[in-house]
Specification:
disordered C terminus; 17 helices; alpha/beta; Rossmann fold; nine-stranded mixed sheet; seven-stranded parallel sheet
Length: 522
C-alpha cells in the first residue's frame, strides 16, 4: 500500500524509540575544526584557490594563486604565522616556480639586445667565448660590459648564477689587450696588471680556469695564489714571468706583499669578488692592507706616471654588506663609482621551487635520509648546507653509517684536505656534498639540482646565496630547495621570505651599500 504524504513520519512515530537504520555522525572534534575554519575564512574567500599557484600550502585555504595580488600595505595571511608553536611541527609550504628559465636569460629589450661582438670586444676574446660555448650575453653582462669598457669603477650587483664572472673579466681583459706592455726581465717580485681577490681557494680555482680560457688566445698569463703552505709555496706560485692577471685569496695576497714576493705598482684594474664575504671580520684586515698597497689614492701617480688614469676598481656581489662604502672610501673616491644592479637583485629566484618544512630537531635526520632516498640517481647532484663545521662532520658520520657516498667541505679543514674536494664534486665523482656556507659563495654548481638547508641559514643573505646554487645560467633544470625550519629564530626569517614571496617584492633589509655612496660623477 502506498503511503500518503506524511506517512513515513507517522510510521517512524509508531515505531517509537527505534533509531533509523543508517545514521552518519560527524565526530565532535572534526565538527569543531570545520566550524573554526569556516569562521576564519574571509567573506567571499574560497577554501581552495583556483588556477596555478604561487604558494602551495599544506592547508589549502592558505595557498595563493598567481593571479592574486597582495597590496604593498596589506598584511597577508602567512602559513608560518603560528610556526613558533610546537603544534606547528609537520606543517609546510612551497613556493612554486612562476617561470621556466632564470631571469638572467630573459630576452632583453631591443636597445639592449647587442651581442658580445657588437659590444666591441677584442677578437681574441670573442674567439675564447666561442671555445667556451658562450652564446648571447646575460642581463648583468649586457649591463656591466659597456660601462666597464669605458674604464669606470663600479659596484656591480646581480643575483647569484647570473654570469657575473664574465661580466667583469671580459671588459677588464679587453682593456689590458688594448694597452699592451713590453715584457720586462724577470723581477724578484711579481707585478700583475690585473688582480682578482676572492674569499676562498675553491673560487680562486674556478675563476682562474675561466680567466685562463679567456687569456689563452690573447697570450696573457694568468696565475692563482692561495695560502695554507710555507713561504716557499707563495714564491713558487708567483715564479712565472710576465703574469698579467693574478687571482688570490686575501690571506695569501697579504703574505706575498709582506714578503715582497708581490708588488701592485703596475696595477691597472682590481676586482673584489663576493664583496659581502670579503668584508667579513675575518678578511677585513688583509683586504685593507691589499688596498693600501694598490695605487688607488686620488691624486697619486698612476702606473704610467701622473697623467695615467687611476686603477679601475670593480666590487662584485649578489649582496653587499653595510659599511662597504666607508671601507672603500678610505682608499678610493667613491664619487667616481657607478652602480650597476639587475632587476632580479635581492629577489627570490622565480624559477626555483622552494619548500619550507617546520620540524622538530630530532626529525631532521630522518627527513633528510628520506629525501636522499627519494632523490633519483640521475636527478643531479645534491648540496646539504650546515651552519657549523662540527655539524658537517657529525652528519658525514651518519651518512657513512647509511652507506651514502658523499664529500665534506668546511673551513676548518687543512689546505691539503680541501684541495680537490670541490673539483671532484663538480666532476661528478660523488653526487652529495655536505658543507658550510664556504660553498655558497660564487661557486659554479650547474650540475646541482637539489639544495637541502639542514640548518636554516642565519641571515637572508645566506639564504639567497644557498638558493643560488641551483637554477644557474648553464643549468639543465631549475632545481629545487628544501629548508628545515627548527628554531624560533628561524621562523622570523621564514616569515620575511614568505611575505616577500606573496607580495612579489625583494627581501627586506638588503638594499644597503649599493646606494650608499655619493652620486656618480659624469
Amino acid at each position: 500500500m502506498a503511503l500518503r504524504r506524511g506517512g513515513a513520519a507517522a510510521a517512524r512515530a509508531a515505531v517509537g524509540s527505534q533509531p533509523p537504520e543508517h545514521v552518519v555522525r560527524i565526530p565532535w572534534a572534526l565538527r569543531q575544526r570545520l566550524e573554526k575554519r569556516r569562521k576564519e575564512r574571509r567573506p567571499g574567500e574560497a577554501a581552495v584557490p583556483s588556477g596555478k599557484l604561487l604558494l602551495r600550502s599544506r592547508r589549502p585555504e592558505l595557498s595563493q594563486p598567481r593571479w592574486q595580488i597582495v597590496g604593498r600595505w596589506e598584511r597577508p595571511r602567512l602559513v608560518s604565522a603560528g610556526w613558533k608553536h610546537r603544534e606547528a611541527c609537520g606543517d609546510y609550504f612551497q613556493l612554486e616556480p612562476s617561470q621556466k628559465a632564470a631571469p638572467a636569460l630573459k630576452a632583453p629589450p631591443a636597445p639592449q639586445g647587442q651581442s658580445f661582438a657588437e659590444m666591441g670586444l677584442q677578437p681574441a676574446l670573442l674567439t675564447a667565448l666561442q671555445s667556451l660555448e658562450v652564446g648571447r650575453p646575460t642581463a648583468v653582462q649586457r649591463l656591466a660590459i659597456p660601462t666597464l669598457l669605458r674604464g669606470r669603477s663600479a659596484l656591480c650587483a646581480a643575483e647569484t648564477g647570473s654570469g657575473k664572472t664574465l661580466a667583469y673579466l671580459l671588459p677588464l681583459l679587453d682593456r689590458l689587450l688594448a694597452r699592451p706592455e713590453k715584457e720586462e726581465e724577470e723581477k724578484k717580485a711579481a707585478a700583475p696588471r690585473g688582480l682578482v681577490v676572492v674569499p676562498s681557494r675553491e673560487l680562486a680555482a674556478q675563476v682562474g680556469a675561466v680567466a685562463a680560457a679567456l687569456c689563452r688566445p690573447a697570450g696573457l698569463r694568468v696565475r692563482g695564489l692561495t695560502g695554507g703552505g710555507a713561504a716557499g709555496g707563495l714564491r713558487r706560485q708567483l715564479r712565472a714571468p710576465g703574469v698579467a692577471v693574478l687571482l688570490g685569496t686575501p690571506g695569501a695576497l697579504r703574505d706575498a706583499l709582506r714578503r715582497r714576493f708581490l708588488t701592485l705598482g703596475r696595477l691597472r684594474w682590481m676586482v673584489l669578488d663576493e664583496a659581502d664575504t670579503l668584508m667579513d671580520e675575518s678578511f677585513a684586515a688583509p683586504i685593507e692592507e691589499i688596498l693600501a698597497h694598490a695605487p688607488l689614492t686620488a691624486g697619486a701617480p698612476g702606473p704610467a706616471g701622473p697623467r695615467e688614469e687611476r686603477t679601475q676598481v670593480v666590487v662584485v656581489g649578489a649582496t653587499f654588506p653595510a659599511g662597504l662604502s666607508q671601507v672603500l672610501g678610505r682608499f678610493v673616491d667613491m664619487g667616481c663609482f657607478t652602480s650597476l644592479a639587475t632587476q632580479g637583485l635581492h629577489r627570490l629566484p622565480p624559477h626555483v621551487q622552494q619548500k619550507f618544512i617546520r620540524l622538530k630537531g630530532q626529525d631532521k635526520l630522518p627527513e633528510l635520509l628520506q629525501l636522499l632516498k627519494d632523490h633519483p640517481a640521475a636527478g643531479g647532484a645534491v648540496i646539504i648546507f650546515c651552519n657549523s663545521a662540527s655539524t658537517v662532520n657529525w652528519l658525514g658520520y651518519i651518512l657513512d653509517d647509511h652507506k651514502i657516498k658523499h664529500l665534506r667541505l668546511q673551513g676548518q679543514m687543512s689546505a691539503v684536505a680541501r684541495a680537490g674536494i670541490f673539483a671532484s664534486f663538480l666532476k661528478g665523482d660523488v653526487s652529495v656534498l655536505v658543507c658550510t656556507d664556504l660553498a655558497s659563495r660564487g661557486l659554479d654548481t650547474s650540475s646541482v639540482q637539489l639544495v637541502v638547508n639542514y640548518d636554516f641559514p642565519d641571515t637572508l643573505q645566506d639564504y639567497l646565496h644557498r638558493v643560488g646554487r641551483v637554477g644557474r645560467v648553464g643549468s639543465k633544470t631549475p632545481g629545487a630547495v628544501v629548508s628545515f625550519v627548527t628554531h624560533r629564530w628561524d621562523v622570523d626569517l621564514v616569515r620575511k621570505i614568505e611575505t616577500a614571496a606573496r607580495k612579489r617584492t625583494g627581501l627586506p633589509g638588503m638594499d644597503c651599500s649599493v646606494n650608499e655612496h655619493p652620486p656618480k660623477a659624469d
